[in-house]
Design brief:
Helix content is about 25%, strand content about 30%. By secondary structure, it is of the alpha+beta class.
């Protein structure tokens, strides 16, 4: 359609719009308070006048008015037109009713027009949907009486004009012709006085009228009615218009089907803190409930058990209404997760718990589990996820995020996503080019979403969610009015509103679907593996603290499962995809730091209580317990200098540079086993350490270490006769990082071409003895200070690099580079539940796009006879190009948190050389990350509490559940198959194999068959 013609038709419609408002009545005398109104006596002498500016620092604030009785005539609706100065929850007679925000400025109160007086309250935050400050001014309050007949006519004609503008010939011409014919024959009063009165409600001309040098003055608009004769003429002309539109429907029937689902993406935190999210939940849910009463066909889908839990606690009556809608299949709790979690940084056990607690909540509260994983906005998806979904009872996976790829188009909208173990789920995406998962119902969105669907040979049904989101809000009345008009429209897809699960059940896929057998890597937001590094480290520490607490609690009489479950839920909510990845405001991280620190503290308390309950006091015994999945070297530290012995073996000791004492026994402690050392008194004989400033080398039985003058290092493997690096490794570089838009999310392509290499300002050996040596290197750059301790321990093939950073640098990326001395075309990365191989070259665009990738505790480059691994205890961003591994240490952007990563950081990463064995790599990573438990006294548990044969499994969970059963979860992480045996001398009962929800059980006997990368949950 010609653009001039299109805009002329829209102007013709807007000219008639004022006549939809039969009456506009100002609502004055509102009561204002800084707290909930029920707590204060009403005093109408304190009512406010407009415009009313209020104190935003005491928000949320409350406004109240008793709305006098209103009665409507036939074909009328009533609305409140309100703006209080920010997002508002509207309560009527004390109950949540709806919301006001920039996209929901009219509130339908037709159900309240029953001749009774109703109390209207507003809880207001001076913020927009995306957290942006709003001017805290209560600027308008009106009661509008709407002529429903005229409103419906204009809405239908406008939709038809907009459809004509985007459809192709000949339908476009036919639709525009009937619109032109209708609008050309409709008359509204054109005398100057009337026209000036209506013009202030005419969005097509008001701005023009007000923009001139000396604009005409508008009188107060109180509403206007179209003369009966003209209204009758309008209705008759519309009947002709409708008949022609119906004829066009028959001539050009709908093509395909768009399966619509009402939705609001509520980021649990992002540009606002969690406390504001809880208010957003109430506002959004109240709006959705109101729409469900107005539109029987409306179905609303909402994810996240945490969101429902918050609603239940703060607004129990609204929650009960939601539960009733769920029973009526008009509200869908979707996703099956505690929150819409990040899927790169959490461990496999954390992801399992997301579904365990989420699905349990859904079943307990709503009587059903979800079959759909709903993650439209998450920043990439680990290869371990499909198996977790299947074991959680989930068949379908939905995301739209891969449409954000900055280099390559993901090839499918529908496919089978095959996980690392071979598990398969149905992948689904849709490409709404206008608002993504925050869709509207209008011709442009519907048409383009259908056109963008690339696999019409498989099905003619496309999914599309509608409703304002990210900051909440959800669908609007206008969207649902549009739905009724567009349900069956010429040459557009047919529209159906149903749940997401019903969409998948309705698919009749005639051909075999393509298979995607890999991770779902997002070619965007690569900085989220590193941003807000302290929160990531704290989160990892909380995961570990819960693991240790649960294992030890298995053996004590008290069942701590309820307390530990609640701590897990705190961790899970902080895994939300705008919290853990590092893309939120500073207030979010203040909350996250407090909550995750609380989890560490409480989990440690439970650990100590549990340990004490199974420890027999004995001043002459120290018990050492290995709670990791692999053998560990017996190295530990104490604050005391003791003479220790173990059978006839020597126990070495050494005073450390910071005044503690480190001990070494030349043996490995088997997994889930203990040893006991005898104390024979204090050891006063500690040799003086000989430290020289110029001695920048270290050596043990396996390695020679030389630290260069710039602070970098070379490692020589004496056993294999090979240098780890091409000249040197641990080269620290500070890069300038200016992404094109998403500052705290992204790493700029080509970032390695910027910046400079750091040079050490000070190097010295600070410790040397029979157990370990330490060389300290210090750097200063761009306001930040870095201290690194190179630590080489006795009989270790690992060089630890303990790092402390006082960071005060903006828009910068700090990386450690390791040009390793191997030739290979692939790199191997830990993904918590196994490993993934990625190309180390950049031959294709797909490989070029993966210039920063996620990994957990290690990344490795190996050739047939030699390999070098970079281990870590809390970093997740790696870059590998040819023979160089780079570990991202700090990535500090400026938006939305200007001070992201400012301050102190402590972590350790390590260099490990080996004979190209993945199992050895994993053992070293466990040794770095799972410290020994050291207790004074005798542990009253068997010498070995758990023996797993073969030693190819990682124990991710060993806990007592609320029923008192013991849950043991094993993950095969090396890609092997065979026979699994378990030995537990303390357990004589039955053992069942279960899914991750601990529900589908079958009794097993050992040895049992096991398969590559599988999760095995055993119930004892």
């Amino acid at each position: 359609m010609d653009k001039k013609f299109f805009y002329r038709l829209l102007k013709s419609i807007s000219e008639i719009l004022p006549y939809t408002i039969s009456e506009q009545r100002p609502l004055k005398a509102w009561y204002f308070t800084n707290g909930p109104i029920e707590e204060k006596p009403l005093d109408y002498e304190k009512t406010i006048t407009f415009p009313f500016k209020w104190d935003f620092e005491k928000s949320p604030v409350w406004f109240m008015k008793d709305l006098e009785a209103v009665l409507l005539q036939e074909n009328q609706k009533a609305y409140l037109k309100l703006w209080f100065g920010g997002e508002s929850l509207i309560l009527v007679d004390g109950k949540p009713y709806g919301e006001i925000n920039e996209y929901h400025k009219l509130l339908n109160i037709t159900p309240l027009c029953d001749g009774k007086t109703h109390r209207v309250e507003a809880q207001v935050m001076p913020r927009g949907l995306f957290g942006k400050p709003q001017e805290p001014v209560f600027s308008e309050a009106f009661l509008l009486i709407i002529d429903e007949e005229i409103s419906e006519i204009l809405k239908t004609v406008e939709i038809t004009v907009r459809a004509a503008n985007i459809l192709e010939e000949p339908v476009s011409k036919k639709l525009s012709d009937i619109c032109d014919e209708f609008l050309s024959n409709v008359w509204v009063p054109r005398d100057t006085k009337t026209y000036l009165k209506t013009a202030q409600q005419d969005i097509g001309v008001k701005g023009e009228i007000e923009s001139v040098w000396n604009a005409p003055k508008f009188e107060e608009f109180t509403g206007i009615k179209l003369q009966e004769e003209l209204k009758e003429q309008l209705i008759n002309k519309y009947k002709v218009f409708k008949s022609k539109l119906e004829k066009l429907k028959r001539e050009h029937p709908p093509v395909g089907t768009i399966h619509l689902v009402g939705h609001s993406h509520i980021d649990y935190a992002w540009l606002w803190p969690v406390e504001e999210t809880k208010r957003k939940i109430a506002r959004t849910f109240a709006n959705a409930v109101m729409l469900s009463k107005m539109f029987p066909e409306f179905v609303f889908s909402q994810s996240s058990a945490q969101i429902y839990q918050d609603l239940k606690e703060k607004y129990p009556e609204l929650y009960e209404t939601v539960k009733q809608l769920v029973e009526q299949n008009r509200w869908e709790p979707v996703g099956g997760m505690w929150v819409e979690s990040d899927c790169n940084v959490p461990t496999i056990e954390s992801l399992i718990r997301q579904f365990y607690y989420g699905q349990k909540f859904f079943e307990r509260e709503f009587g059903k589990k979800s079959k759909v994983c709903w993650l439209p906005d998450v920043f990439g998806f680990s290869w371990i996820l499909p198996q977790i979904l299947k074991q959680a009872g989930i068949e379908y996976f939905v995301t739209t995020k891969l449409n954000w790829n900055d280099t390559n188009e993901f090839p499918y909208d529908l496919c089978i996503w095959r996980g690392i173990d071979g598990s398969e789920v149905l992948y689904c995406s849709f490409n709404n080019p206008n608002e993504g998962y925050n869709g509207r119902i209008d011709p442009d969105t519907v048409y383009k979403t259908w056109k963008n669907f690339r696999q019409k040979e498989l099905t003619d049904k496309v999914l599309l969610s509608f409703g304002y989101g990210d900051g909440g809000g959800g669908p609007t009345e206008e969207m649902l009015q549009n739905y009724r008009i567009l349900k069956e429209f010429p040459d557009l897809p047919k529209l159906e509103i149903q749940s997401v699960e019903k969409y998948f059940e309705s698919l009749e896929l005639q051909k075999n679907l393509p298979i995607w057998d890999d991770e779902l890597y997002l070619e965007c937001h690569r900085g989220t593996y590193t941003s807000q590094s302290n929160i990531k480290k704290l989160h990892k520490d909380a995961e570990d603290a819960l693991y240790f607490s649960e294992v030890v609690s298995v053996f004590c009489k008290h069942n701590y499962s309820d307390e530990l479950d609640e701590l897990w839920k705190i961790v899970l909510r902080n895994e939300f995809h705008d919290i853990l990845p590092g893309s939120s405001i500073k207030e979010v991280y203040q909350d996250a730091e407090r909550e995750l620190s609380y989890v560490k503290e409480k989990a440690t308390e439970i650990f100590e209580k549990a340990i004490n309950s199974i420890t027999k006091k004995n001043k002459s015994i120290i018990s050492i317990l290995n709670l990791s999945s692999f053998p560990k070297r017996c190295v530990f530290s104490l604050n005391e200098n003791l003479k220790l012995s173990l059978d006839r073996e020597v126990v070495f000791s050494q005073k450390t540079f910071d005044g503690r004492y480190i001990y070494f026994v030349d043996r490995k402690i088997e997994p889930f086993s203990k040893i006991e050392l005898k104390i024979s008194g204090a050891d006063d004989e500690q040799p003086e350490q000989s430290l020289t400033k110029d001695n920048l080398s270290m050596e043990n039985e396996y390695l020679k270490i030389s630290v260069k003058e710039d602070g970098s290092v070379q490692v020589y493997d004496k056993e294999l006769g090979k240098f780890a690096f091409d000249k040197c490794g641990n080269i620290l570089k500070m890069h300038k990082n200016i992404p094109y838009y998403w500052d705290n999310w992204d790493i700029a392509d080509g970032v390695e071409k910027t910046g400079f290499t750091l040079k050490a300002s000070k190097i010295m050996k600070i410790e040397s003895g029979p157990i370990r040596e330490i060389i300290r290197v210090e750097y200063e750059a761009e306001g930040s200070k870095i201290i690194q301790d190179y630590i080489l321990a006795k009989k270790s093939k690992r060089l630890d690099i303990k790092t402390k950073i006082d960071w005060h640098t903006r828009r910068a990326l700090l990386r450690a580079y390791f040009p390793v001395n191997v030739l290979t075309r692939k790199a191997i990365f830990d993904i918590s539940g196994g490993f993934i191989e990625r190309s180390s070259h950049k031959n294709t665009k797909y490989e070029q796009a993966r210039f920063e990738v996620p990994a957990h505790r290690w990344a490795d480059l190996s050739q047939t006879d030699f390999g070098v691994t970079i281990l870590n205890d809390g970093k997740y961003g790696y870059s590998v190009h040819q023979n160089t591994i780079a570990l991202s240490l700090i990535k500090a952007g400026i938006f939305p948190d200007f001070f992201a990563d400012e301050g102190l950081h402590e972590f350790t990463y390590s260099v490990y050389t080996h004979h190209s064995e993945i199992k050895a790599i994993v053992e070293e990573s466990e040794d770095l990350n799972k410290p020994l438990t050291v207790i004074k006294g005798e542990l009253e548990i068997p010498h070995t509490i758990l023996k797993i044969t073969p030693n190819n499994f990682k124990v991710t969970c060993f806990r007592k559940n609320t029923q008192g059963n013991i849950v043991l979860r094993l993950v095969e992480i090396f890609g092997t198959s065979g026979k699994l045996s378990l030995e537990m001398p303390w357990h004589k009962g039955n053992i069942s194999l279960s899914d991750i929800l601990e529900e589908k059980r079958q009794q097993v006997s050992f040895p049992m068959n096991y398969h590559p990368f599988k999760i095995y949950t055993l119930i004892l």
